[in-house]
Write the structure tokens for this entry.
Amino acid sequence: MRDVVEARRRLEAFVGPLLQLLGRSERRQWGAVYLQGLLLEGGRKTAAGIARRLQGDEQALQQFLSQSPWDWEVVRRELAVRTVGLISSPRSGWIVDDTGFPKKGQHSVGVARQYSGTLGKVGNCQVATSLNYATEDASIPLDFSLYMPKIWMQDRNRCKKAGVPRDHVFRKKWQLALDMIDRAATWGISQGVVVADAGYGSVVEFRSQLRERGLPYVLGVQGSTAIWLTEIEAHPPPYQGRGRPRTVSRDLPTPEAAVNVAMGLPDTAWQEITWRQGSRGALTSRFAVLRAQPAHGHSDGKVLEPYGWLLIEWPSESETPSGFWVSDLPQNTLPRELVYWAKMRWWVEQNYQQLKDQLGLDHFEGRSWTGWHHHVTLAMIAYNFLVLESLRAKKNYWVDLTPDPPGACEAGHIDLPWFLPNV
């Protein structure tokens, strides 16, 4: 019983300041109810489902979620600052990824037939890009952005019905990621190595924009990515005194596809590297680490990217390489460090699974822009608290949400159906 009492005190201390940001007392009340419903085990985490389970007012809960004007960005900022302040580490990463929300019908905001990694195919769904903060011990979502396909942004009447802001414009997923990175920077979140899969890393503009912001990265790319294995500088031909001076070089060497480079490497180029301990033992694979330079722009006589790293994974049991990454980390970076960052994305897959399976991240059945963002924000609050509770259970790790009396116990992932703060 004391475990439950102490966990309740920590939960109230964590969510109380966040609920205050919702404004009026009835919003804080329904915010607490909704969080309670998200934290209950089992059942659909919809406004209707939560109201039934808690014998609450469904109409009031629906209105709080989809019509109440509280600012989710303000809440997310405070949530990020508070949580990162408790789990921050000098060896932290910012992970960019996206996830799908399968849907029926055509009216939910942003829904369309589009590719979803969750489905592994094209399907009727919403897709959201996320920015996540990760350390060796934990990972939390900092922000989510709902991707709005062109078919939506070209139909202003449809957007108006769903409550999409009038000034919202089409943004590619990598642009949404940069928007979230910039927001997190203004929030004062400690910046880390940016990690993403090839869906983002293969976008040359994304890599360029990260360098402009001074953000180091380890990004997945396609095996077809053209690279040079020596550092190349473009030198325009000397001016001959006639016509307009040339600004590009015509004698750049021919690059190779990353996959062809991998195929041509000798056995001595490969080494076994373990990056972490999984539930079934050490996770180990075979990697090659090379100094290389992406050659995008070479066909136009341009050198657009700096000399850096190419990381290749080729498991010994596989007939072909399974992964490629480029990085601008310093030249003295060890191979094990590159692999550590490249493999950090596993945290986000775990986040998505727990957010969906335990907290109903993908259960929202409303159609509006506001409702979707409110639901996701509240799910983030619940998830971050559970992450902090799990850290309290780890040996030699302590998260102090609020001063505990002598003898206070530690707790792990727990069921919290009793929570309803008096605010």
Remarks:
- DSSP finds 14 helices and twelve strands in the chain.
- The two ends are 23 Å apart (CA to CA).
- The CA atoms of residues 224 and 257 lie 5 Å apart.
- The longest helix spans residues 369-392.
